[in-house]
């Protein structure tokens, strides 16, 4: 049995994917700690820097039963899935390797590609070139991955789908036009129609992006 779970998250960050998995997995005794930025751009938990929880000063961070702090969104989600595989889905067998590859693409290419836009030192000219040569290439690849089904691996959303959804929403935050990518648009609407996703969004004070 899983005891108390504590998640440090900040609205608009990839930690929302972990928050969604907690709600989809119907974990009980969950404490959500909302982390905010101070005027210097540092993530804070109240008056204390997040670095006291996670030395990297990043979200997500999660603690179960008051034990060791776990970090990194894909790792946390796979751990949660291992606890409640009947509620959180990740492909098995030969499909597992494809799912791991897609998860790695989202983490290393799609996620890191869009994070570039959040860097204050990047010039507008560099952002435009990055959009043309990196970001839209990755979004088009994801759009193609979604062409054969409602979700990435068939008819049931996986923990990878929830991660992909969160990264996609950053396009709205940074005014990147993805309206022509119909598979992604339909995918976002399907994800947001889920009660657990709506709950996680509401708990972080986020309005739905696709509806």
From TrEMBL:
CDD domains: GST_C_Beta. InterPro entries: Glutathione-S-Trfase_C-like, Glutathione-S-Trfase_C_sf, GST_C, Thioredoxin-like_sf. Gene3D superfamilies: 1.20.1050.10, Glutaredoxin (3.40.30.10). It comes from the Eukaryota. Residues 92-209 form the GST C-terminal domain. This is GST C-terminal domain-containing protein. It comes from Trichomonascus ciferrii.
């Amino acid at each position: 049995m899983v005891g108390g779970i504590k998640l440090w998250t900040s609205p608009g960050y990839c930690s929302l994917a972990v928050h969604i998995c907690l709600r989809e997995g119907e974990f009980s005794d969950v404490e959500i700690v909302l982390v905010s930025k101070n005027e210097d751009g540092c993530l804070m938990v109240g008056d204390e820097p997040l670095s006291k929880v996670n030395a990297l000063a990043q979200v997500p961070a999660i603690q179960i039963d008051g034990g060791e702090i776990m970090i990194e969104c894909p790792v946390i989600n796979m751990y949660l899935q291992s606890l409640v595989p009947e509620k959180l889905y990740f492909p098995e067998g030969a499909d597992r390797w494809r799912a791991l590859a897609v998860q790695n693409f989202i983490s290393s290419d799609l996620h890191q590609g869009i994070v570039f836009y959040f860097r204050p030192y990047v010039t507008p000219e560099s952002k435009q070139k990055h959009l043309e040569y990196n970001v839209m290439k990755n979004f088009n690849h994801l759009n193609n991955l979604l062409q054969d089904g409602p979700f990435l691996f068939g008819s049931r959303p996986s923990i990878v789908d929830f991660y992909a959804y969160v990264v996609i929403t950053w396009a709205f935050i940074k005014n990147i036009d993805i309206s022509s990518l119909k598979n992604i648009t339909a995918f976002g609407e399907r994800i947001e129609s889920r009660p657990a996703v709506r709950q996680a969004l509401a708990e972080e004070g986020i309005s739905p992006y696709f509806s």
